[in-house]
Specification:
Length: 369
C-alpha cells in the first residue's frame, strides 16, 4: 500500500484521504481522474452488503426506509437512530441507537463501532417548524449536516442527504422546476437544503465524496403524524376524512404542489443509493410523481367518502412558503440516468391512503367515519 494512504471499508482507496495527504506531483490528478471518470460502466463487481446508519430515523421517512433496506440487506445491517425513545414495535424490528447529529464524537464512535458504509441523514427541522425556531433549525440543519459530511469523507461513506421542494424560491422556474436553475429559497429549511446540496457536490468534485441527494416532493404517509411541513395537509386530510369528516386546510384550494406516496419515496431512495456511480450525471436530482391542489385531492377523496367537508383557512406563513415553491418537478434526468419511475398517481394514492388510515384507526380502536 502506498505510504500515508488510508483504506476505506469497501477495500478501495478513499479519495478524501488521498486528497488530504497526497502531495506528490502528478499522482493525485491521475487517480482522481480515474475515480471520477464518466466513462460507460464496465462489468459490475458485486458490492459488499452495506452497513447502513439512518439519522433522524423516527421522523416520517426513517422507519419505512429501514424496513425496505432490512428486507434486502438483513435487519442487523440497518441501524436506526434518533434522540427520542422509539415505540416498542420499532425497537423490536431491528437495531436502534441513540444518536445526536450535533455530537460529533459520539457519531464518529457509532460509525466506527458499527462499521457503517452507508449513511442516510434524515435529521432536520422542517419548513414551518424551522421558521418558528430559526436558531435551532440552523444548528440542526447546518451544523449537524457539517458533522455528517466530515464523517462521511473521513470514513469513505456513501452519503445520502435528502433535499426538498423547499430548496426552490420565488425566482425559480415553477412549472416545471428543472434540476439546475436559480433557487434562492426564503426559509431557513430551504436555505439549509441548498447549502447541503452545494457542500455535498463540492466535496464530491474536490475530494471524491460519494454524495447523493434527492429533492423530495411533499411525501404522503399513513405511518407518521404530520411533522410541521407545508405539505402536511395532504396527510391530515385523510385522517380527518375518516374521523370527523371535516378538514380545515391551511392553504388555498388552488395551491398546486408536487406530491409523492411514501413507498415511491423509499423506493427512489434505495434505487438511487444502489445505482452505479458511473451512471450519475448529477449529485442532486428531482424526483416527481404527481402534482395536485387541496381541492383536487378532496374531490378524489369524495369519490370514496362523499360527506367530506373542507374549510379553507389559509395560514399566512405556510401559504407564503407554498407560493414560493414549484408546482411541478422536472425529473427527466433521474428517469434517464438511473431509471426512476413512480408507481402511484393521485387515484392510486387516495385509494391506498384511505384503506391504510381506516385499517390503522380500527387497529388502534378509534371510530371510523
Amino acid at each position: 500500500m502506498l505510504p500515508g494512504v488510508q483504506v476505506c471499508m469497501l477495500g478501495l482507496f478513499c479519495r478524501g484521504c488521498l486528497s488530504r495527504v497526497w502531495n506528490w506531483t502528478g499522482l493525485l490528478p491521475r487517480y482522481m481522474s480515474k475515480w471520477n471518470s464518466q466513462d460507460a460502466c464496465g462489468p459490475q463487481v458485486p458490492e459488499e452488503v452495506p452497513r447502513v446508519l439512518i439519522t433522524g430515523g423516527l421522523g416520517q421517512l426513517g422507519v419505512g426506509l429501514a424496513e425496505m433496506l432490512r428486507k434486502q440487506y438483513g435487519a442487523e445491517n440497518v441501524i436506526l437512530s434518533d434522540i427520542k425513545k422509539p415505540p416498542p414495535h420499532v425497537y423490536s424490528s431491528g437495531p436502534f441507537v441513540y444518536a445526536d447529529v450535533l455530537d460529533y464524537k459520539h457519531l464518529r464512535e457509532l460509525i466506527i463501532n458499527h462499521q457503517i458504509t452507508w449513511l442516510v441523514h434524515y435529521s432536520a427541522l422542517l419548513s414551518a417548524v424551522g421558521e418558528a425556531n430559526v436558531a435551532l433549525a440552523r444548528k440542526i440543519n447546518i451544523t449537524g449536516l457539517h458533522n455528517v459530511l466530515d464523517l462521511a469523507l473521513e470514513n469513505c461513506l456513501r452519503l445520502f442527504v435528502p433535499s426538498t421542494i423547499g430548496a426552490f424560491g420565488p425566482s425559480s422556474p415553477r412549472d416545471p422546476a428543472p434540476d439546475l436553475c436559480v433557487q434562492r429559497p426564503r426559509t431557513i429549511y430551504g436555505v439549509s437544503k441548498v447549502h447541503g446540496e452545494l457542500m455535498g457536490e463540492y466535496l464530491h468534485h474536490k475530494y471524491g465524496l460519494d454524495f447523493r441527494c434527492l429533492r423530495y416532493p411533499g411525501v404522503i404517509s399513513v405511518n407518521t403524524h404530520p411533522g410541521g411541513g407545508t405539505t402536511d395537509y395532504a396527510v391530515q386530510i385523510f385522517h380527518d376524512a375518516l374521523s370527523t369528516g371535516h378538514h380545515v386546510c391551511y392553504l388555498r384550494p388552488d395551491t398546486r404542489l408536487p406530491m409523492m406516496h411514501i413507498s415511491d419515496c423509499h423506493r427512489a431512495t434505495v434505487e438511487y443509493m444502489q445505482a452505479p456511480e458511473c451512471q450519475l450525471s448529477l449529485r442532486t436530482y428531482n424526483i416527481d410523481a404527481m402534482s395536485f391542489t387541496p381541492e383536487e385531492v378532496a374531490q378524489e377523496i369524495r369519490k370514496h367518502l362523499p360527506h367530506l367537508k373542507v374549510t379553507y383557512n389559509p395560514d399566512s406563513v405556510r401559504q407564503t412558503i407554498a407560493d414560493s415553491w414549484p408546482v411541478r418537478f422536472d425529473d427527466t434526468n433521474a428517469r434517464r440516468d438511473w431509471g426512476w419511475k413512480p408507481a402511484f398517481g393521485l387515484e392510486e394514492l387516495v385509494s391506498d391512503m384511505l384503506k391504510s388510515v381506516r385499517d390503522k384507526r380500527i387497529i388502534e380502536g378509534f371510530p371510523v367515519s
